[in-house]
Structure formats: structure tokens, C-alpha cells
Amino acid sequence: MAASRALAALLAVAILVLISSSVPRVMAGDPSPLQDFCVADMMTPVFVNGFVCKNPKLVMANDFFRAGLNKPGMLNAQGSAVTLVSVLQLPGLNTLGISLARIDFGPNGLNPPHTHPRATEILTVIKGQLLVGFVTSNQQDGRNLLFTKQLVEGDVFVFPQGLIHFQANNGPNPALAIAALSSQNPGTITIANAVFGSTPPISDLILAKAFMTEKDTVDWIQSQFAPAMSSNSSMGGGGNYTGGGGGGYYPGMRKKP
């Protein structure tokens, strides 16, 4: 009896292994290349998920080359500059699933909270020091965990794909970092710009409720990210918006007298 039970258990395990081995596996990431290279043809009118391959007979060494990463970028209002080298700047990256960026920081410079929807990022500090961090997605207990680390020259830190992250120069001198990203075109969503500077703007009443603050506060923040727009502009659903760059109403909501 014991032998038959053991045999039945062994047979069940074998069946499970067979079933699991036959289930298709879904892999996340850029498509794998099916040839040595697929240099992006930026001139074609055809749209695909990525870029159409350039005729291999017309490919040159310059298709795999990009100069100028030795030069610092022009710092923005937050005191940072990102010089990206993606498939848009280097056509030879097409289908290879990788890109990189040079990130310059002035003293107190910040690369503000943002996400890369299509890439994990690994960052190496070349000069200076940086405080870096990322926030997890919503947890079952309603929390979002923050992981931070102080980095100095030679340190490496990874930001998982899609998670909000930042880098801040909390040192007295300029800082420099190089980031590698696991996509030929990682994309960037800067949180403040996307939320407060969209075109047309998100309703300030929606944002006020989401951020649990006053409508006037949202209007002021929106005015810092986008120029003021006339109150008779469309919001895509027939509603109008008012205020200094902010949306006051949304479709289906009654206007206050």
C-alpha cells in the first residue's frame, strides 16, 4: 500500500513538472534581436514597436557612434542636467535593449523624482557625492517604502524598473554620474511635470483632492510648470478650466456660482 502511494505521489510530481515546462513564459524587456544589428532607420514613414531596420548594406560605423559625452550638460532650474544617449541619439542601439545617460549636478542640484516606464537603471557616481533613493509601489498595508543611500565616487546603485526615484547632490561641489538603462528608449516621467504641467492641465479640483490641499495652492504650482491658458480652452470632454495654468472644472461637474 505504501509503495503504491509513493508511486502515485511520484507520478503527480512528474505530471506537474511536465505541465509547468510546457507553459509559455512571458519575458519583460525590449525585443531580442534576430540579427547582428538593426540600426534604426529614422527616415522611414513606417511605425513599429521600436524602429524599422536600416538596410544593412547602408550601415556605417557612425551608426554605432556618439561623441560629446565628455561635456557637461546645461543645468536646469533644479540644478541638474541629463544627457541621454538612447536610440534617438544613437541609431545603432535599436533592438539592443540598452542606453545610458550622463547626469551633471551643481551644488545642491537635484534630479527630481521620476520614473523610467521601460527600464531598470544602474547608476555609478563618477565625481562628488549623491543622496539617492527610490519608493516602492503601493504595499498591501497602504505604505510606500523609501530606500535611500548616500553615495560617493565609485559607488553603484540600482533603481528597479518603473519605480519613482531621485538623485540629489548634498555635497559642496559639483557631482557627476553615469547611468545605464535596460532599454534602447527607456522613457522618463518626471512626476511634478507630468502632474502639474500636463497639456491640457489636470483639473485643479482633482489635484487639490488628491494632494489634500487647497485649489489655490494647486493653481500656483501649476502656474510654475505651464503658462497660463485661457478659460475657454477645451479639456477634451467639453469642460472649461480657469486659473493661472490650472483646470477648475471637469466634465460632469457643476460649476459653482
Automatic annotation (TrEMBL):
Protein source organism: Lolium multiflorum (Italian ryegrass)
Q: Name one GO cellular component term.
A: apoplast
A GO molecular function assigned to this protein is:
manganese ion binding
Spell out the family assignment given in the record's similarity comment.
Belongs to the germin family.
Q: Which residues form the Cupin type-1 domain?
A: 67-219
Q: Which UniProt keywords are listed?
A: Apoplast, Cell wall, Disulfide bond, Manganese, Metal-binding, Oxidoreductase, Secreted, Signal
Q: Which residues bind oxalate?
A: N111, H116, E121
- Report what the protein is called: Germin-like protein
**What sections of the sequence does the record tag as coiled-coil?**
none
Q: Which SMART domains match?
A: Cupin_1
Signal peptide interval: 1-28
Query: Where is the protein found, in the record's own terms?
Result: Secreted, Cell wall; Secreted, Extracellular space, Apoplast
Locate the residues binding Mn(2+): H114, H116, E121, H165
Instruction: Describe the reaction catalysed, as an equation.
Output: oxalate + O2 + 2 H(+) = H2O2 + 2 CO2
Which Pfam families does the annotation name? Cupin_1
Cystine pairings recorded for this chain: C38-C53
- InterPro entries per record: Cupin_1, Germin, Germin_Mn-BS, RmlC-like_jellyroll, RmlC_Cupin_sf
